[in-house]
Design goal:
Length: about 270
């Protein structure tokens, strides 16, 4: 089901900002042959500070305007990829973060080749957050200075079981063998072979974990699972009363984000 992303109260302002941006449409080929798209916004050509901003499930890069605008106001240049099967990126299926993390690494390398002096923050919401966390367990270039994840899940199989139980009122576990077979055939990986917790145990990048305590889609307990698994410098910020991917509505959201990032990017 499509997640009902909350419309920003600053939508008109964001639309005007985006229309006036200096932007470029970029493309690259994924490891499995898909043509991927990203919007690059360079309003600060003298700056080497970059944010790669990843959107959530059944969304697209341009639905991240609130986040992009805030980063722009803080002096960051931006790369906003459309995840596979979203926006202008090709593909039939969402990969639940694992294929997307390889795509993210491709975009990081694209950016490093473009600006070798780049200082990069990775920022992801929901599915994008889980892609970021998967990537943090792999080798990343030294240009990646820190990461922020908002409303990500800690285990794809646990999440799928919960979604099945909530929406179909049947136990989710018996269906996972069929789901895993489908994923092996179409996405070429098994749910049993990947783990965000395991990736975070290999993480050496500072990470800010953020989650809404009233999240009914991805339980807040998963934020704690991710936080305690992470072996790098880390910070956890929970938001009382916030639903899934709605933490940005809090007045403390962006100050918390930029206070954390500011400790790692000059």
């Amino acid at each position: 089901a499509k997640i009902p992303w909350k419309r920003s109260p600053h939508q008109a302002e964001n639309d005007r900002w985006f229309a006036e941006c200096s932007r470029q449409e970029d493309y690259l080929n994924s490891y499995d042959g898909l043509k991927l798209h990203a919007t690059r916004i360079v309003n600060h050509p003298e700056s080497h500070r970059w944010a790669i901003v990843l959107h959530g499930y059944h969304s697209c890069a341009m639905e991240m305007a609130d986040y992009l605008h805030e980063f722009d106001q803080q002096g960051y240049n931006l790369l906003a990829p459309d995840l596979r099967a979203c926006g202008l990126s090709r593909g039939r299926y969402c990969g639940l973060g694992w294929p997307e993390h390889y795509d993210l690494i491709s975009w990081i390398n694209f950016l490093v080749n473009l600006d070798p002096a780049a200082e990069i923050v990775l920022f992801g919401v929901s599915l994008g957050a889980s892609a970021v966390m998967y990537a943090l367990g792999d080798y990343l270039p030294k240009q990646v200075k820190c990461a922020v994840e908002d409303s990500g899940f800690s285990d794809a199989q646990e999440l799928l079981e919960q979604v099945v139980a909530d929406h179909l009122s049947i136990p989710g576990h018996p269906l996972m063998m069929g789901v895993d077979l489908f994923m092996k055939q179409n996405l070429h990986y098994s749910l049993n072979d990947v783990s965000i917790r395991r990736q975070l145990m290999q993480c050496r990048t500072p990470v800010l974990f953020m989650h809404g305590e009233a999240d009914s889609l991805i339980p807040a307990s998963m934020a704690y699972d991710c936080y305690y698994a992470c072996q790098s410098e880390k910070q956890l910020q929970m938001f009382t009363g916030s639903g899934h991917a709605q933490c940005f509505c809090s007045e403390q959201y962006f100050p918390t984000v930029f206070e954390f990032i500011g400790r790692h990017i000059g």
